[in-house]
Amino acid sequence: MPPPRDRQSRLQNLAKADIARASGDVRTQLDTLRGIIDSYEDGTMDEIAGLPADRRASRLFEVEPLLFAMNNLAMALLEQRRDLEEAERLVATCLDVLPGQPDLRDTHAQILMKLGRMSEAERSSAIALQGDIDNPAILATAAEILGSTGRFEEARLVLQRMRDAMRSDPWPDRELEARVDGVEAMVSNGP
Fold it and tell me: Cα separation of 17 and 25, whole Å?
């Protein structure tokens, strides 16, 4: 059955992919996200990236599910440690359309870090922080990059800021907390 081409169905498929991820069904998650991406015409993102900013904004509503699907697929590939080069290409394509979007920048920073491209990861993380300075996930990425480059004291300060931001969240994110615990362990082993 071909993937649906209307916005509402694409958004429903994004939810289906999230449910598959939560239940550990990686194959369904990846297949669903790829189906959403495949439901768009080839070249859609290139076309939108080439538009002037005022015309680009009017098309974003149309491609929002595509942007989410591409970012979520990139994150799934990162989590599975599969084809990080594809993950980087997916996010880079999204950044051609929304270069300053903090969540996309954070995903990009995480992927670049795993690829060992630390200076690029640091630049992408800095842009993400400029767009959303109190986002705990973005702060966690920044701390991980700092710790990975041996800047432990800076990493500790960012982690403290992140923990402060997390305290005000009434819905704690268990995955983020586990990720932060790993970063804290790395940083605490430093000088």
Answer: 9
Does residue 41 sit within a domain?
yes
Phi and psi torsions of 11, nearest 5°: -65, -40
Q: What is the pTM of this model?
A: 0.85
The answer to whether residue 150 is domain-embedded is no
pLDDT computed for residue 101 by the predictor:
92
Structural domain boundaries, residue 49: 1-99
On whether the CB atoms of residues 20 and 36 are closer than 8 A, the answer is no
| Number of domains the chain is built from | 1
Q: Considering the domain boundaries, does residue 30 fall inside one?
A: yes
Which token pair is 50?
């080439």
Are the C-beta atoms of residues 125 and 109 closer than 8 Å to each other? yes
What confidence category does residue 102 fall into, taking pLDDT thresholds of 50, 70 and 90?
very high
Sign, CA dihedral 44-47-50-51, equals negative
How far is it, in rounded angstroms, from Cα 41 to Cα 24?
30
- Tell me the CA distances in angstroms from 124 to 11, 82, 83, 84, 107, one per residue in order: 27, 21, 20, 16, 9
* CA gap 127, 146 in Å, rounded: 15
Structural contact between residues 3 and 13, judged by C-beta atoms closer than 8 angstroms:
yes
pLDDT in tens, 12-55: 989 999 899 888 898 999 999 999 998 888 888 888 888 887 78
3-state secondary structure of 143: helix
